Amino acid sequence: MPKTQTITDISDGCEVDSLFLLESIDIRKKKQDGKYLFATLADRTGRISCKIWGLPTQSGDEIEALGRSLRPGDVYQIRGFAKVFNGECEININDGIADLAAPAAIQASERGEFVYSPVDIRETAIAIQNLAGTIRNGQLKLVVSLALMDAGGFYEKPAAKKRHHNYRGGLAEHTLETATIAVAMAEAQKSYGIDRDILIAGALLHDIGKALCFEEKGIGYAARPEYDLIGHIPLGITFLTRFKDYLDDTTYLHLLHIVQSHHGEYGEVMPRTAEAWAVHLADLASATLREISDDIAPLEPGEGKWKGEKSGKAVYRI
Fold it and tell me: pLDDT per residue over 239-288, tens digit each?
């Protein structure tokens, strides 16, 4: 069956019957007895939440078994109805649960219809490489170039499962934003005495461990177990040890410190240098503004929320 609806076509009360990419699936408990599935669906126009309730005759065990059989990264026929809940339009599936028995076959030429990414990945890659090219320390420039190349799919991968920049190309976009903001802070006041080379290198590599946290699944990306069990900072530190011999000890340790401390008070190590603080603040600004913007986007003018889904902060659309 061809794709006949896009996510931007879906509004409160409309019937849904089309193909969508399954990005994620979670098994959840109902307030009463039983279970339901909470999914995120996507196509090139955006994302939407989907609750799969099933038929009244289906037990919680059957719903759970279905949830375990569904494969993120595959395309499924979604048949249900749209409903606004807590200010967000979502899809609900009851009778349409039968359509989820098997994924739909998609031609390679059709894949672009199902992948959501608001990023021009090629332009982001060029911008990152151009910024890295301004590093004057030749060895440090080499380490940045090799690390971005060796990380595997760095420019294509998302930056998170659910929060900021959680789409194809999001990791590189967030990295570029962080580095750009950090450089702007350094240039705003020369008396800070910030080393521009190590600042750019640290900003471009601060989330390098996230490139090791995601892998391709179908036509999407899914988090590897390392995402939750180890975390991207330890993975990034371990990854960067392969480049130790390229740098003098002071520069190498400073680079690791920036990566290790970029979560600031939320991490195990606090920033201790001006460069590390700049990267932490820039990282926080990029992540927070992305989350706030995403929370505001679906709101109508004059509408607000006490707690945005991604940011967890109060938001309001002017």
Answer: 999 999 999 999 999 999 999 999 999 999 999 999 999 999 999 999 99
What would the pLDDT profile of 110-144 be if each residue is shown by its tens digit? 999 999 999 999 999 999 999 999 999 999 999 99
Domains of the chain: 7-113 (2.40.50.140), 121-296 (1.10.3210)
Quote the tokens at residue 246: 């390229």
Nearest-CA neighbor of 157 among 200, 112, 119? 119
Q: In terms of Cα–Cα distance, which of 171, 169, 168 is closest to 220?
A: 168
227: tokens are 């995402």
CA distance 292 to 298: 11
Place of tokens 């019957």: 17
Tokens of residue 93, six digits: 């599936």
pTM (predicted TM-score): 0.90
Answer for the pair 182, 195: CB distance below 8 angstroms, yes or no: no
